[in-house]
Amino acid sequence: MLNSDIAGQFRFELDPAERILWAGQPRQGWMLHPQDIFMIPFSLLWGGFAIFWFASVLFIGENIFFALFGVPFVLVGLYLIFGRFLYDRWARKNTFYALTNQRILIRNGGRVASLTSIHLTAIPEITFQEHREGRASIFFSAVPPQMGFSSARVRPQAGPFFDQIENGQQVYQTLRRAQQDALRDAGKAG
Hints:
The protein has helices spanning 4-7, 36-60, 64-93, 168-189; strands at residues 20-24, 95-100, 103-108, 114-119, 127-130, 136-139, 161-165. By secondary structure, it is of the alpha+beta class. The chain has two domains: 4-28 and 97-189, PH-domain like (Roll), CATH 2.30.29; 36-89. The chain has a four-stranded antiparallel beta sheet. Strands 5-6-7 form a three-stranded antiparallel beta sheet, with helices on one face. β2 (95-100) and β3 (103-108) form a beta hairpin. α2 (36-60) packs antiparallel against α3 (64-93). The model is unreliable at 147-157 (pLDDT under 50).
């Protein structure tokens, strides 16, 4: 259950008495999200119209500034049609999760890496969402993300979470035991 390569991503983040209980990553490869039921038709309409309008302006030979006005709309359309899937795949490839006996750690890599650290005693509520093939998402706040037009990677209303992890039920059980132990230890210290 402990992937040592992924756990190594967190070796400099651990406190002296802290140990990693689980480490993993979100599901890799191409993936559709629930909001894609709305985003795919919207992106095709937006991108199709923007490309049609831009090509029409170029074909008619209108003023070059009129054509340049359409470039941002075409770029947004291309991102909505293709780019968001490429970005989502890249972001999941560079995201690493760890559960320690004291904290939840989430590292988002890339050019500018970030680390989210949540003490197990500070998690207000845990929401478990089961997916197919034994995968699950675990949210460390009261509200899981809602379907909508937000990016697959940007879910500020949901707070931090483990997204589409393997053996989700086992990770959830390990998390619950670790949280209970942390709360019991905090009660003894207080």
